[in-house]
Amino acid sequence: MISRRLLVRATAASAAALGFPATFAQTTNWPEAPVKIIVPFTAGGASDILTRALAEKLQARLGQNFVVDNRTGAGGNIGMQAVRGAAPDGYTIASATIGTLSINQFLFANLGYDPAKDFDYVSMIWQNCNVFVVAPQHPAKTVQEFLAWARKQPKGVSYGSAGVGTTPHLSGELFRARTGIQAVHIPYRGAAQSMPALMAGDTDFAIDNIASYTPLIKAGKVRALAVTASERWPTMAEVPTMAEAGVLDFIITSWGAFVVPKGTPTSVVDKLSAAIKAIAAEPAMQQRFLDTGARTIATTPKETVAFAERERVKWKEVVQISGAKME
C-alpha cells in the first residue's frame, strides 16, 4: 500500500516535472505522517528540553507525532548537515540555535552547510540570556566593583567556559574587549567542570547561560552581578542588566529557531510558523519555558531570517576578537 506521505511526494515530483511550483502540489493537510525534529545537541540540554516541550504541543495541535532525534557532533554541525540533506517536504525540521545559524560559520573552516542558503526559516522558538557570576566568597558585589578589583590583579583575571567557541567563551572575550581588563580564558570539557571551578574560586568569573546557573544562584553557591539581556530577566528581576551595571553594548542572548530544508513548500512553513505563534501565546507554555530558564518567542519566517542575519554580523566581530578557530 502506498502511504499518503509518499503520494504527496510523488504528486509534488510530477508537478515539478510539469513546471509547476512545489507549493501548487502540496496538500494543505500537512502533516499526514510523523514529523522528525533533529536537535543537533545531546539530550537533556536546554535546546533539547525546550524542543521536546514544543514538540508535545505541536503534536496536540497538528494531530501528528513530532519525534525528537538527537544528532550530535561538531558543535551542532552534524545535525544541521542531516537536515540540509533531507527531503524538503516538511517532515524534517532542525531545532537550530544561535551557534548553528549565526556563530559556527566563523569558527569552523569546513561547516558542511550554509546557514543562510541551505534552509528555509520558520520561526524563533526560545530565547534566554547569560548571567555574569562570581564565587560567593568574591569581594565584588557589583560589576564595577569586580572591574576595580580585576584591574588591581598583577597577572589579570581568569574566566571559565564549557569549551572554545561556546557563547560563554565568546561572552568572556567580548567582556574583556569592552572593559579593557586582562582576562585569560580557561576552557573546560563541559559545564560539569567549569561550574565547580568557579564555585571553588579556581576561576574569577563566568558569563554563562542563565538556565544553567539559576539553581546555583538560588542556592547561594555563586553570586549574580548582571544579566546580558536588554532588560531585567523575569525570574531574576533583582539582578541589573549589563547596561545598568555600566557595561554598554553588551547584549548577549542565546536562542533557538526552527528551520527546514531549502525548498520546503511555503504552505508548510507558514502553517508551522502559525502553530508556533499560537503555542507561544499560551500562558502555561510561557511559564513552562520560564521555569526552564527561557522565554517563548515566535517570529514570522521573514523576521527569523532578518534576526539570524543581524546576529551573524555581531558574532563575526566577537569571533574575530576571540581568535577562536575550530577544526
What does the model show?
- It is a single chain.
- This protein has two domains: 193 residues, D-Maltodextrin-Binding Protein, domain 2 (3-Layer(aba) Sandwich); 108 residues, D-Maltodextrin-Binding Protein, domain 2, CATH 3.40.190.
- 43% of the residues lie in helices and 19% in strands.
- The strands form two sheets. Strands 1, 2, 3, 4, 7, 8, 9 and 10 form an eight-stranded mixed sheet that branches. It has a two-stranded parallel ribbon with strand order 5-6.
- It is globular and about 65 Å long.
- It is an alpha/beta fold and 327 residues long.
Task: Map the helices and strands.
Elements: H1 4-17, H2 22-25, E1 35-39, H3 46-62, E2 66-70, H4 77-84, E3 92-97, H5 98-107, E4 119-134, H6 143-150, E5 157-161, H7 167-179, E6 183-187, H8 191-199, E7 206-209, H9 210-218, E8 223-227, E9 253-261, H10 266-280, H11 283-292, E10 295-296, H12 301-322
Parallel strand pairs: 1-2, 1-3, 5-6
Antiparallel strand pairs: 3-9, 4-7, 4-8, 4-9, 4-10
Helix pairs in contact: 3-11, 5-12, 7-12
CATH topology (fold) name of the largest domain:
D-Maltodextrin-Binding Protein, domain 2
How far from one another are the termini? 46 Å
Task: Figure out the total of helices.
Answer: 12
Give the CATH H-level superfamily of the largest domain. Bordetella uptake gene, domain 1
Which range best describes the helical content: under 10%, 10-25%, 25-40%, 40-55%, 55-70% or over 70%?
A: 40-55%
Q: Kindly name the structural category.
A: alpha/beta
In what range is the share of β-strand residues?
15-25%
The coarse silhouette is globular
CATH architecture label of the largest domain: 3-Layer(aba) Sandwich
Level-1 CATH class name of the largest domain: Alpha Beta
Beta-strand segment tally: 10
Computed Rg: 21 Å
Query: SSE order in H/E notation?
Result: HHEHEHEHEHEHEHEHEEHHEH
Give the domain tally.
2
Are there runs of 5+ residues with pLDDT below 50, and where?
1-27
Main pleated sheet = 8 strands, mixed
Average of per-residue pLDDT values: 91
